[in-house]
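Hi all, posting the design record for the shared folder.

TITLE: backbone redesign
STEP: 1 of 1
STRUCTURE INPUT:
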């Protein structure tokens, strides 16, 4: 295979699989991500940064320079899961006759609450944005509530017809 064709295959795979810094662009991943979030989060698309990692929480005993001492410390695991994507979100798609029978994923957000707790204003606004884009959102106080939220998609879509 000649060099131009090999480079073309590498660049095609870079686009396909999301490889970075192919072709000597030299841009940092965070810069690419920030630019993409600004460029893509409008119209039918909403993307959000999804950090993952582990930190430590507890009662602050002392802070000296860059050193802190915690009492009753415990790990705090943040993010969706190990290996999850840098960004999450949705892209609204209107189903056309040509797409009937095609499987698509519907973004789903369920806010779980304990007894007598209610979603915050911010959580409600997030849920409204998800629903306006065609996704599922609801607050659940039990497993049964969550099942109802997931089942609501079919009943909502049949009412629209």
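Okay, here is what came back for every position:
SEQUENCE:
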């Amino acid at each position: 295979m000649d060099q131009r064709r090999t480079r073309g295959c590498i660049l095609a795979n870079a686009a396909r699989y999301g490889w970075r810094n192919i072709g000597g662009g030299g841009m940092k991943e965070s810069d690419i991500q920030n630019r993409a979030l600004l460029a893509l989060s409008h119209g039918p698309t909403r993307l959000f940064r999804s950090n993952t990692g582990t930190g430590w929480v507890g009662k602050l005993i002392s802070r000296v320079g860059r050193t802190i001492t915690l009492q009753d410390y415990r790990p705090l695991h943040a993010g969706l899961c190990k290996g999850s994507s840098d960004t999450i979100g949705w892209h609204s798609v209107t189903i056309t006759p040509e797409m009937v029978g095609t499987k698509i994923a519907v973004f789903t957000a369920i806010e779980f609450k304990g007894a007598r707790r209610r979603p915050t204003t911010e959580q409600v606004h997030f849920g409204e944005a998800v629903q306006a884009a065609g996704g599922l959102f609801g607050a659940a106080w039990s497993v049964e509530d969550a099942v109802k939220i997931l089942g609501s998609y079919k009943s909502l879509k049949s009412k629209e017809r």
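COMMENT: Residues 4 and 10 are 10 Å apart (CA to CA).
Let me know if anyone wants the other runs.
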